UniProtKB/TrEMBL annotation:
The keyword Cell wall biogenesis/degradation applies. Pfam families: FemAB. Keywords: Acyltransferase, Cell shape, Cell wall biogenesis/degradation, Peptidoglycan synthesis, Transferase. InterPro entries: Acyl_CoA_acyltransferase (IPR016181), FEMABX (IPR003447), PG_Glycine_Bridge_Synth (IPR050644). This is Methicillin resistance protein. Belongs to the FemABX family. Signal peptide: none annotated.
């Protein structure tokens, strides 16, 4: 499928020949680490049984914008489209008129696909920094603010600083807890062989914090798909040879990301989560990463986890994103969807 905008510009659905070009564009232009728009994230979604579309806008064969679109099924044969941390636009100069025009071209193509797939709306949750001017542009373009899907705020460490400076910016309690873990003999290791330990701890963590985790298959497939290219890794902390903390971390481009974490509350006095984070940060820095993303903080929704993360740099200003926005294709079905969603909640 292809729509010609002008002689040098076209919007189309990509095939596998675009894989390298697609990921190179994301690394060079994404406002965050770009994982949720990456080619492999699309493969992961397909492995989970979801239908995806990779839509790209080019000018003279140069990518200007792209979007990984995930089809989310609804009842009555309907669906909606979801763009996690997308779309991504060249240079991320979103306030420029040319970039807004670029997005309009892209969204027009997505809308045509949506009509064929019976999608009633498009939900995007881009990695664009929160600002009122951009919100007004989205409102003027017909988008409706729909809250939060991906984390609204996050803490991103600057790994170009020295280890000494990174330690200096931590809360004193965080530095102390790292030393406590070391004195307790906590050991760090990594590898897929610890997956069952991770899942055991994830079930405990979900029950303890009264949150819903993904399925065991979700994490297993994530590590299989993203682990093949060494983007995803399972890291653990052990006490007396027992795994008591386990995290899934992502390395992509200049970024290391703390994506999922779990721990055993019975061993909380060993302070293993602090040492595991610190060793992961050091490893990322040694590998040449420039940023360490803690992937979500929210003092109201996750107070304990947020305190833990912010402790690694109490001087750092949080990065705030613009949230999720909907472009409605069918007002009737969109209202029905929101009615049942509100009733269910």
């Amino acid at each position: 499928m292809s729509v010609i905008i002008k002689p040098t510009m076209q919007v189309k659905i990509c095939d596998n020949s675009y894989r390298t070009k697609w990921d190179d564009f994301i690394i060079n232009n994404s406002a965050d680490f770009g994982l949720l728009q990456s080619w492999e994230w699309g493969i992961f979604q397909e492995v989970l049984g979801r239908h995806i579309f990779r839509v790209v806008l080019e000018d003279n064969s140069k990518i200007m914008a792209l979007a990984l679109v995930i089809k989310q099924p609804l009842k009555f044969g309907k669906s909606y489209f979801y763009l996690p941390r997308g779309p991504i636009v060249v240079n991320n100069e979103l306030m420029a008129d040319q970039q807004i025009e670029t997005l309009e071209f892209l969204f027009n193509e997505i809308k045509q696909i949506a009509q064929q797939e019976k999608a009633i709306f498009l939900r995007m949750d881009p990695a664009w920094r929160d600002n009122d001017d951009l919100k007004n542009i989205l409102k003027d373009s017909g988008f409706i603010f729909s809250g939060q899907v991906q984390p609204k705020s996050t803490l991103i460490l600057d790994l170009t600083k020295s280890e000494g400076d990174i330690l200096k910016n931590m809360k004193s309690k965080t530095r102390y807890n790292i030393k406590v873990a070391e004195k307790n003999g906590v050991q760090i290791d990594h590898g897929k062989k610890y997956f069952n330990d991770f899942w055991r701890l994830m079930e405990k963590t979900s029950d303890r914090n009264e949150i819903t985790s993904y399925s065991k298959n979700y994490y297993k497939k994530l590590l299989e798909v993203l682990g093949e290219s060494k983007k995803a890794e399972l890291v653990v902390a052990k006490f007396e040879n027992k795994v008591i903390t386990a995290n899934i971390v992502i390395k992509i481009g200049d970024w290391q990301v703390y994506l999922y974490g779990s721990s055993d509350y019975e061993y909380r006095s060993k302070m293993a989560p602090y040492l595991l984070q610190w060793q992961t940060i050091i490893t990322a820095k040694e590998a040449g990463c420039k940023y360490y993303d803690f992937w979500g903080v929210d003092a109201e929704k996750w107070p304990g986890v947020t305190r833990f993360k912010i402790g690694f740099d109490e001087t750092r200003e949080l990065t705030n994103y613009i949230g999720a926005w909907d472009e409605v294709y069918s007002s009737l079905w969109y209202n029905i969807y929101n009615f049942f969603k509100t009733k269910k909640s």
